[in-house]
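pinned: reference chain
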Amino acid sequence: MRNFVVLLLVAAPALAEEPQVHRDIGYAEPKNERQTLDVYAPKEGINHPVVFWIHGGGWQRGDKTEVQGKPQAFVDRAFVFVSTNYRFVPNVTIKVMAGDIAKSIRWVHDHAQEYGGGPKTILVKGHSAGAQLAALVSTDDRYLRAEKLSLSIIKGCVPVDGDTYDVPMQSATVEQRRKDIYKWKFGDEASQNDLSPAHARCQ
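pinned: its structure tokens
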């Protein structure tokens, strides 16, 4: 079983320095708005752990800029904070979205040191739909393997306020309207199962 770290942000004093901000960096070619990321970095130091943030929005809305005070909170405690965009349904499937996340992580792994980060200390976090994507890419190795990476580079996963870790089970407990929404976004039961972190498979 893989080990994950637990973060206690209250344990470190705040430094209250403005982070260095690098916006709209493309992680795929050709560059487009939905496949870009922002990096918030401490002004000094090397090999800082990296927090990789995935926004929510029901897999069909949201933006990497919706981070509130998170970048400052993490940079104050000597983390590099990365917030990523990804494409939405109905333009792409959730499986393709997870591929976008893996590509973005690949970029972070390759370029973290340029911003003072450590490529072997990546923590993946996400909210709502971003929580499902965070959990999926952190447990199902197919996505990172497609980018020639191992799950071993992910040192922790913190999915926040998600409810689709077992999509077929979740679908079975909700009213018909939400069941229909899950089917539209995740596909049939086989596809729902395939996109459920609780049913992740690893080689």
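why pinned: The domain at 16-163 is CATH 3.40.50.1820 (Rossmann fold). The two ends are 13 Å apart (CA to CA).
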